[in-house]
């Protein structure tokens, strides 16, 4: 009975609605707690239904989930992980890895992307995407993001001082950080604190953030751009954002998603689609970086298509700061002379 009520509610609530001239539709998930086995008090029952709803969110919109032993266990695990995440931030347990981005023709390192790592998580190793997802749900992404910016800016300063004066840095930004009204002044203050010039910094945002900012006439992106930094759309090709839309925004370039890069090896059509995406991006004045390059064939193909920069395990896996510097020194990097 409860399930059919949930189905009807979802059906009704998913109907598109006209709001301020736009047709919007909500994504609905349902969690169900049953009396008395899932709680004999309203508060407990509703908390358990909420936990089941969190579980439902790991599926497609419209998903319904009953509270169960598994849900209970996962909720406890999530809560433990959340506490652990908080203390990791306080005790300085996070580190950064750096993934080189190389020139597509010379293969010299032009830039590094900072990637968050949590090496000694008590609860075993978690993928960065999972950690970032949890940090986003708990709001911890804001202080963690601030730590990432401060730490990576300090490292870039150290590399510039050590003679890699043209090295650039790319940092990923989450929607929640992006949505804070003080994002631009915060980044400006951190660049000043580290003593780095904005022209060496790239921010990687998602297609979702771009779409959201487009609704307000690029209020956030314009302020970030005014700092003098470059803006790139990460994982390009995973959502429905056209290149024309990107080119009408303050974005400087796109990072072609792994899926497009590997698909380019599969069949003639995918090959042509990848080539066309690079050519159109260039025609619209956008730089193109390919992510997830794993084979020589992909690297050669992308270079032949005129792709500007490449990044992926074919060149190197993400490296700790000192190993990244060794990678620059091994001759793969460009020992910039100013
Ligand atoms: P991303 O920004 O798209 O970063 C690229 C991801 O692809 C990295 O995973 C990298 O290790 C992986 N990768 C790169 N080349 C290859 C390849 O050739 N093959 C394969 N299989 N994988 C490759 P990672 O480090 O696990 O990060 C996952 C995602 O987590 C990132 O995707 C980014 O969205 C997010 N992330 C990482 N660090 C941060 C951070 O400091 N802040 C925020 N907001 N997000 C972060
Ligand atoms: Mg990225
Ligand atoms: Mg990416």
Question: Helix and strand layout, with pairings?
Answer:
Elements: H1 2-13, E1 17-19, E2 22-24, E3 30-32, H2 42-56, E4 64-66, H3 69-91, E5 95-103, E6 109-117, H4 128-138, H5 141-161, E7 168-172, H6 175-178, H7 183-194, E8 201-205, H8 207-214, H9 219-226, E9 230-236, H10 243-247, E10 253-256, H11 258-263, H12 268-283, E11 287-290, H13 296-304, E12 309-310, H14 321-332
Parallel strand pairs: 3-4, 6-7, 7-8, 8-9, 9-10, 10-11, 11-12
Antiparallel strand pairs: 1-2, 5-6, 5-12
Bound molecules: ligand C2E and magnesium ion (MG) (2 copies).
Mean pLDDT: 90
Order of helices and strands: HEEEHEHEEHHEHHEHHEHEHHEHEH
Low-pLDDT regions: 333-338
Radius of gyration equals: 23 Å
The biggest beta sheet, please?
Answer: 8 strands, mixed, barrel
Structural class computed from helices and strand pairing: alpha/beta
Overall spatial form: globular
Q: How do the strands line up in the largest sheet?
A: 5-6-7-8-9-10-11-12
Number of helices: 14
Q: Let me know the number of strands.
A: 12
Present as ligands are: ligand C2E, magnesium ion
Residues in β-strands, percent: 15-25%
Measured between the Cα atoms of the first and last residue, the distance is: 71 Å
| Approximate helicity band | 40-55%
